[in-house]
Amino acid sequence: MVVETVTIPVQSRFGVTVYNSLLAHDPASDRLLVLLPGKGYTCHHPVLYYLRRAALALGYDALSVEYGFQIANAELDANSVAWMQADVEAALRPVLVRGYRRVCIAAKSLGTALAGELARMLPEDSVSLLLLTPIGGALQGLGSIPTLAVFGAADALYTPEVAAAYTGHPTIVCRVFDGLNHSLEMKGSWRESLAVLPEIIAVCEDFLRREG
Fold first, then answer.
1. Cβ(51)–Cβ(35) under 8 Å?
2. Residue 180 is part of a domain; what is its CATH number?
3. Beta-strand pair 17-26/61-64
4. What is the arithmetic mean of pLDDT over 87-91?
5. Domain range for residue 30?
6. For position 85, what pLDDT does the model report?
7. Which residue of 61, 68, 176, 184 shows the fewest CB atoms closer than 10 Å?
8. pLDDT: which is higher, 79 or 17
9. What is the domain count for the chain?
10. Band of residue 39 on the pLDDT scale cut at 50, 70, 90
């Protein structure tokens, strides 16, 4: 099976052209992983990079999204979320014409604020969410969308009450990793950070396998 790279250009509301990257299988896949990065955690950072590798190995195509504000070196303001949402939707639309049966939206931190709205572009029975260090109300209002939320217990933005609120939830599962910070790493120890990475990816891989 061959994987080709397709560039998806978007004229961003931030005044720049964003070049998003689709890795697509030949013969065509019927499953798609959409990667929404964080503010400072791009699709080239470890968890998203290896998550994409795992998804490709499972037969998913993978759309890696970039944000216009990062390319423009712009500060986030009151308009930023709406502009980012519009840019992400513009990147996804031309990819969806490939006719995917299943779409998983994997988002990190800031990206989790966009993921739920993006999922609403799709039939509810065809989409799932993989939310890595979700922020704010990212887990609210998701309806019956199958969702895996991954937290680090040492993340300053995480509180145990968040995961506890979804204990026994029919469609939202929370996985909390002891000692990991907002980057899903062990602060001050690259060895421990690398050691836990396969476990994080394996949890995500199992979710992709089930939802694919």
1. yes
2. 3.40.50.1820
3. antiparallel
4. 96
5. 2-211
6. 95
7. 176
8. 17
9. 1
10. very high
